[in-house]
Amino acid sequence: MNLHGFPAAEESRARREAASWDVVPGRRFDYGSYATLKERLGDRLKAAGYAYGEAHGTVAIDRDKHAATVDLESRPGPLVHLGRTSIDGNGGIPARKLLNRVTWKTGDLYDPRDLATTQGRLYDLGVFSSVRVDLPPAPTEVADVAIAVKPGPLHEVRTGGGLGIERIREEARARFEWTVSNFLGGLRRLRLRVQPAWVVIPSVSDPRYSGPAAENDVQLTQPDLLGSRVTGHVLAGYDLGIAEGYRYYGPRAQLGLERPLLRDPPPRGRFVESAVPRLLQRRRGRLRRRGRIGSSAS
């Protein structure tokens, strides 16, 4: 196996990655492992800051010697630092509130995880149906970041119902929930929830106690309080219930603040979801070398 054009700091990592996929001298050639290795090496280049980096390869087969020569070529392009960040398509939502969710600063080295995390943060606001984070198509050392968002429906209604049967209680329950995103601007979320029910104790066939019950509340959520990563919650509700021998009713209130203590978890996507297939592919490669399953190449 030969490596060409890899940055000095990345060549040793590329050889270790190749060894982990058994694309090394003396091992049986497996096209699936080779194709996955190329993809992984491209990902490695991007993770190292080469936003436009790609890995290409060729395989020369010598049928007489039963040998394959693998040549892997790196085309890293420039080492990219992030420039100005712009927001497009936000409509009446202030751009500064969206920029507060960006995980990089001007001049930071490109990291694909930052872009994916920012995309996830914007989706989490619940007001956008699509979020795109793009760099200029032409390679450049300083890349401005364009974030294009598309507002989704700001009003959502959910309804439902069901039956509950327990040893000493049976009930029929309905549910109505209305959510308003970007309530009065500022990315606030207002949720109104009403859950009425009719309760029979202990059963419909032997009704000793029966009557209405309900859980009702209004919740207001404000993300990014005072430009921070703190989210505030205010809830006010009124509940009505029935139990064996008594009824109860009264108000309910909650006030809370939350803030992630650690860095955002890895975004769901290529960097996380590729882990399981990668392990399965390695296992498949080992089985092929032991002759327990067949192999094919194209």
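The above is record 1. Record 2 follows with the same two-line structure.
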Amino acid sequence: MAWGCRRQSEASSPIPRRRLPAPPSCAGPATPRPPARLRPNLAHFHCAPAYPLPRRPLRPPRPLLQAEIRIDDVSAYQSIVDAEWSIIYDKLKACAESGASVILSRLPIGDLATQYFADRGLFCAGRVPRDDLERVARATGARVQTTVTGLTSDVLGACEAFEERQVGAERFNFFTGCPAATTATLVLRGGAEQFIDETERSIHDALMIVKSTMKSTRVVAGGGAIEMAVSRHLKEYSRSVEGKQQLIIAAFSRALEFIPRQLADNAGFDSTDILNRLRTKHAHE
């Protein structure tokens, strides 16, 4: 594949520019070409669209190393350029003929591919984060592809509706009615970053509490109830121990009462009265 060329001759002359091959004819009405940031409500499907998720970039790739091809005539140069464009058009044709309505890629999608898909009424998005791509694949039942060769219907996912909406100053793609969706997305908005960060931490704490509750159905009482119960048992046990160990155990039982005392002080209650009532309640149980 050619990324550059140099003509060797005694009298060097510039290579004349030639028109690049035109893309294949569009079957159907053309739609406006979407910009890099998509307009709101540009794509709205209600016909169970399918989603191939290619990992290869849908544009002419850049070489990792410096490549040089030496040719003797202009026609050879044009054949190299035609071969390069035919490769990218073959990839785009394979995606369009797979039956997909939405095409997502982890790598960038160039302007040529964007216009090609837009002419055929297809939605495409590049530079999708890996986590988002995998979540969409699991929810829609699609499988991430490393090549566009041999695309079949069994690798495509589906959902009831796909819509792009604008929320505030940002635009989001919404996949609704996914057959295998087990998660949901929360969009947090606020006036400052510190409010957003604090809200995110609060939601994370709440989700972790629910997760722990689902794993274990046992409930542990709070508010110093555990500490007061252990303190009462240690006091009773210390009376059966002889020597200095009795004093050590009794001191440890009194230290456990510091937690409910501090909780009462933080809440604005009389800690001494609260502790006396807690000792009475625990002693009668």
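The chain has two domains: 23-185, 225-283.
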